[in-house]
Write a structure and sequence with these properties.
The structure is a homodimer of 180-residue chains. Chain A has 180 residues and is of the alpha+beta class. In chain A, 33% of the residues lie in helices and 17% in strands. At the A-B interface, helix 1, helix 2, strand 1, helix 4 and strand 3 of A face helix 1, helix 2, strand 1, helix 4 and strand 3 of B.
């Protein structure tokens, strides 16, 4: 799948077929995604692949939008390294997560992010995957082959802002506040 | 370019050929990247394309690793919407930035992120692009056609951790602290 096609067609997938995702495939995604850039090449990420049903059920209760984790075939818990730069760390996790989801999409596998929150859940998730002291289990991505018209089944409004309301030249237009 | 190939081969590009990047191409990148998922579909991003040499020179002084912005052909300043969830916002910016850089890479255009910091610089950058009150110019991505062995010219150590040190199954291994 071409990058342009993958980027345009990736949607959150929250309903999954019972088709398993094998270890080799997950390994390939991480092996590609690990080339993602990060602040000072810190690679502030580890990935814990969770298939255990009881662990998935527990993770699915650890965020307001985590319910799909209970039915996914596999979740990757993204565990962030300790460090002083919260913006860069979250930004870098977003970069590597997008790579992982695009790679899965190319393989016909859907995904959906669940941010683990509030802080008590993040700590509980860290305990579940036995994250070392100081590391934090910030989010989990559920993966599975999509079922039906799945992309439209999310809790959020669909659609996206048009490019004309997102891309400006040199400066924001004076009328920006009116656009919102 | 296949997703897998693009994800594996994308590297930070900090030295740029004088080949211009036309408006239509930038528009296509944003038109594809805008389909990126975000927390509650908030799409907490705007993109300001900067080509003005004096603006680029000023941006290049607004972060410790922003120097390449002075010589890029075009910078996209990513401006974040106001909002109460700093983790999700930074994570979502990372997702959309990764899409943009992969799209550019597919077109043969290199890129490199510059986080704008500290806070005074972020405010100065917001002023430069006339970001509305409350919005913040968190980072800029420099774009340009790569020159030579460019990927190796960065200030950070090269290479990446092997998959075996990044991907675990069900839980972290007990030996993880020893690996670091």
């Amino acid at each position: 799948m071409r990058v342009d096609q993958a980027v345009r067609s990736l949607r959150a997938t929250r309903t999954y077929a019972p088709t398993p995702i094998d270890d080799e495939r997950v390994g390939r995604w991480v092996d590609a995604a690990r080339w993602c850039g990060s602040s000072k090449n810190s690679q502030p990420w580890r990935f814990v692949a969770v298939r255990d049903r009881e662990s998935l059920r527990r993770l699915s209760g650890m965020g307001d939008f985590a319910r799909h984790l209970s039915t996914c075939q596999l979740a990757l818990v993204l565990v962030a390294a300790p460090g002083p730069y919260p913006f860069s760390r979250a930004f870098d996790l977003g970069r590597v997560a997008q790579s992982l989801m695009l790679l899965a999409h190319e393989d016909g596998v859907g995904s959906c992010v669940a941010v683990l929150e509030p802080r008590a859940n993040l700590i509980a998730a860290g305990g579940l995957v036995r994250a070392p002291e100081g590391w934090s289990a910030e989010l989990a991505i559920g993966f599975g082959h999509p079922v039906g018209e799945n992309a439209s089944s999310g809790p959020s409004p669909r659609g996206r802002l048009p490019t004309a309301e997102l891309l400006f030249w040199e400066t924001f237009p004076a009328r920006h506040d009116a656009l919102r």
